[in-house]
Design brief:
The protein has helices spanning about 5-30, 120-125, 150-160, 165-185, 190-195, 200-215, 220-230, 235-245, 250-265, 270-275, 285-295, 300-314, and strands spanning about 35-40, 45-50, 55-60, 60-70, 70-75, 80, 85-90, 95-100, 110-115, 140-145. The protein is an alpha+beta fold and about 325 residues long.
């Protein structure tokens, strides 16, 4: 029996819809309340029953698949919207702005993400003989692409492991390798290969990102950092922004303000103390930059976030 292209596409669509429905059911069974959890190492699940205002946070290298609702990721001037038909790929640690766009109590936003380890990407590149890049690609450390049936099926098998924790210790690493292989073979394979492992200046930018993350509270000396990475100061500035959409100074500032917000919420300290702990020596300067990013001064922001948390608990 000969199957036409149209029939094959229809079957594929039916199978993908069944996979999405299974993911909705299984994630819904695990998550009864809004928030995020990490039920297995490297696997994160998220649930939100109402659209959210913009959230500022850090994201690790990962692949994110939405199974219900939609979300938008803002990086610099670019917007990346992903939904049940599109996955998000992030290949460098980034401070980001995210916003859940579609969600309701009847159909909550549901999403899963899987951490991507650069060393594992390297291993699969070699084993699958995928080291050589096929095309030139944009260096930006983020992309949205259509979800295909193979990737969705692998994600279903990851979530099924929630019911078999003993098996998960053995099978999760294997399925993760399969997912990485499919990403490398797919539309964003060159981006993942280029950013995570090989070629040009990108490994140096990844090291620069890690240096900034570890020492965000220290003064930023571009010339010294560039010298340590074997780059010119202008080259570091240019290539850093090409990958992260932020200059090194903007990147550091975002890290400082995110950590200050975490301290204010979690440790019940005042703005001056938070400013000093993240590297600011001028509280007025800190207050101005905090308001520029989050829209309101530090203590008002903290009060607003706590009130929102109480409303959500009700």
């Amino acid at each position: 029996m000969v199957v036409s292209n149209g029939q094959q596409a229809e079957r594929e669509a039916v199978l993908m819809q069944a996979s999405r429905e299974e993911l909705v059911e299984r994630i819904g069974r695990v998550m009864h309340e809004d928030g995020g959890i990490e039920p297995l190492p490297g696997l994160h699940l998220y649930r939100h029953s109402i659209p959210l205002e913009q959230v500022y946070n850090l994201v690790e290298p990962s692949v994110c698949v939405v199974v219900q609702g939609s979300k938008e990721f803002l990086l610099g001037e670019s917007r990346y919207r992903y939904d049940p038909f599109h996955y998000l790929l992030v290949t460098v640690n980034l401070p980001y702005v995210g916003q859940v766009l579609e969600a309701s109590k009847e159909h909550p936003f549901l999403c899963l993400s899987l951490d991507l380890a650069p060393t594992l990407v390297s291993e699969i590149l070699v084993k699958a003989d995928l080291v050589e890049s096929r095309t030139q690609t944009d260096a930006r450390a983020i992309a949205v692409s259509p979800v295909d049936g193979s990737l969705l099926d692998a994600m279903v098998r990851v979530v099924r492991l929630l019911d078999a924790p003993a098996e998960a210790r053995v099978l999760l690493p294997l399925v993760t390798r399969e997912i990485l292989y499919r990403l490398l073979k797919g539309e964003q394979g060159d981006r993942l290969r280029h950013l995570a492992i090989l070629g040009g200046y990108t490994p140096s930018i990844a090291r620069a990102v890690e240096r900034l993350r570890q020492g965000f509270d220290q003064p930023l000396r571009i010339e010294q950092l560039a010298h340590e990475l074997g780059m010119s100061a202008s080259g570091l500035q240019r290539h850093f922004k090409a990958v992260t959409a932020l200059s090194p100074l903007q990147f550091q500032k975002r890290l400082r303000l995110l950590e200050a917000r975490r301290l204010l919420l979690g440790e019940n300290i005042d703005a001056a103390s938070a400013a000093y702990r993240v590297g600011y020596r001028d509280t007025s300067h800190f207050n101005r930059e905090y308001k520029s990013l989050f829209g309101v001064p530090p203590m008002r922001d903290v009060q607003r976030l706590r009130e929102q948390a109480l409303e959500g608990a009700d």
